[in-house]
Predict the 3D structure of the following.
Amino acid sequence: MSKVNKRNTQTRRSFLRGAALSSAGAVVAVSSTAKEQSEALITEAQSWAQELADGVDVTPYGLPIEHEGDVIRRNVPWLTADAVSSVNFTPIHALDGTITPQGCAFERHHSGAIDLKKEDYRLMINGLVDKPMIFTYFDLERFPRENHVYFCECAANTGMEWAGAQLNGAQFTHGMIHNMEYTGVPLRTILNEVGLIAAGDLKDKWVFVEGADASSNGRSIPMEKALDDVFVAFKANGEALRKEHGYPVRLVVPGWEGNMWVKWLRRIEVTDGPVESREETSKYTDTLSDGRSRKWTWAMDAKSVVTNPSPQMPIKHGSGSLLISGLAWSGHGAIKRVDVSLDGGKNWRIASLSKPGEKMAVSRFYFHTDWDGEEMLLQSRAIDETGYVQPTKTQLRAVRGLNSIYHNNCIQTWHVGKNGSVENVEVS
Amino acid sequence: MSKVNKRNTQTRRSFLRGAALSSAGAVVAVSSTAKEQSEALITEAQSWAQELADGVDVTPYGLPIEHEGDVIRRNVPWLTADAVSSVNFTPIHALDGTITPQGCAFERHHSGAIDLKKEDYRLMINGLVDKPMIFTYFDLERFPRENHVYFCECAANTGMEWAGAQLNGAQFTHGMIHNMEYTGVPLRTILNEVGLIAAGDLKDKWVFVEGADASSNGRSIPMEKALDDVFVAFKANGEALRKEHGYPVRLVVPGWEGNMWVKWLRRIEVTDGPVESREETSKYTDTLSDGRSRKWTWAMDAKSVVTNPSPQMPIKHGSGSLLISGLAWSGHGAIKRVDVSLDGGKNWRIASLSKPGEKMAVSRFYFHTDWDGEEMLLQSRAIDETGYVQPTKTQLRAVRGLNSIYHNNCIQTWHVGKNGSVENVEVS
């Protein structure tokens, strides 16, 4: 069984050696906290080891343990002018892996999260089609189905960074993103059911999609995208969509800005051009320095952020072994590589991805280092399969000016102090 | 843009044509329910489209919408003799995709789910190692980290099927399984930290793992597995483990029976042989017809089940387009193929996998058919990358007898009546 010994040798490296070498042979506590408290906690029978604890009837649907009560969505009240709070942020600083649990995946509503029963759900397909049709929820369940993991990012994510380093936490600067496994029906399957012949040559055609909430939130999508990977989803991470994510049915538009992922999807109209709706003219356009606005900026460019350490997750253990972790994604395909800098972008080293990047899905990166306890300017930069490299804030401003809210994918900088505290800063 | 027209042509097939052909040109409601109610629901402004709905402050941590209140873990009180209920079942009949949300992932405890804070957590590594050590939770966070999606199946899953078709629901026959993305540290990294030199030749060595709960639930694992893919996990699906899944730290033993995935992991001892603990002698062994018992039956053999339709999910829409869906998995590697039979195993057809199978992770399969409205005997059978084929109940009983509780991976049969109702049955 030489395989066993070989594996062992290959990975032979000490990570917490500093403390461990203080005593050899006897049981050694690694951290100072452990040194003080470890004996009793590990050698004496604690209360939880002496009694029968909660049975399974306590939580038919389980919630996070109370000690994780701070891992929640949070809003920033002054960010939106709406009568009720209409945006909150995923606690990405406290999560790990790649999947975002539905319970803490960010919300953005234009007129609130509506309560729509499956029995009351209808989807109309009309416009330039052979047979305009209305489907119930239960009709949709009869089509062939697919599963895909995709990220959904609000176009305004990181929007406050255009004006400087304002929000002191990865949750607030980058938390308008989630990454879930969706189950649903490809839109092309449904469009084929109603017949696209009336549309003639499809290359100039569009679909206009809208939701059942008061805002209706209508958006135009070119037919090429509609027939490619757009799909009509009814589950996320295995279970029904949450009310706030569009129960019972939402549109999934892989890689494109979250506003197009219409929730409570009620109507899809095949048109011979874009509708130029309120949601794609007054909003979701990018105003440049000269006052002109870019529109149809659908795909979210490659982006990354260090989630730990970050302002809400300071380093508490002092110098030595430090695991830096973060997220990277691209609306143009898979993440190919992520680099990490400890000195504000002067030197870059390649981080490891927890698995090969997947198209329009979040990648988790890790970078392990020995921290010397000195100040750091932590950055990450994503490179996607097209070769695109995430730009610095200076590079992005040079092209896009300072008037925009949307599509800010600049490199983020965290200043790490000698005491391990972390702050949002800018570097020139 | 010939790509667009080509895609459209390739997938041109009608799935709900029966109803749709009744009228061409005008808006057509597909199902009879839709016909009766559709006009008002789609053409008139409903209450939910006329008012501002809930803002984001309502649910800092979101729960399923009340209409999904039946998608919960359920127990079967008579199954266990424990003082408090100690096992419940994942509602696999109502889920889709591959990820199991933590909130409805099954639980099995031997002395209840304990409440253990991160601050009070200690992991001791002792036995045949260079430096026995104690780690805090925060020490473990300083090691390099990995993410993997793995299924966890209780060895007793489907155990009641040995005696016949007793439990009328996929949740109860096959619901002691979940499939999550884990984040943690490879066990080999931690074993290398404490040094395995004292263990000498590793090929005869084992680790004995135990939990902090009153049962301690100790199990022996051969060193080859321990150094291969076992890891020490602190997150599942991105967030902290739920209390009932071992918060803050559990062991992950890919492909092997769930009892070895020790929760509230407190100690790992390197030994020169298996401990032959209570949990691996009085339990988790498979008694054969002649009274002898198999032991060390760690890996879960390839298995599958149709989750929809199933007894808790009858067909409500009548004949015509029917999407059959289910789960498949193997503790010996990736699922290679799943077959579906509508006639109790006389004829088999290949189902589609929603993505290529991954090692020791659940695969979702779909099979689309036109149901003629006649009775069916629905079955699925899994084939894994080793070429192993899931056996029939008869084949399994011929080898294993009827005395066992554990490791029942036989083909499951659902009888579908003409009215769409579904029942658990046996076929010879």
In short: Chain A touches chain B through 150 residues (CB under 8 Å). Chain A has three domains: 12-54, 77-294, 303-425. The two ends of chain A are 56 Å apart (CA to CA). Residues 27 and 270 of chain A are 71 Å apart (CA to CA).
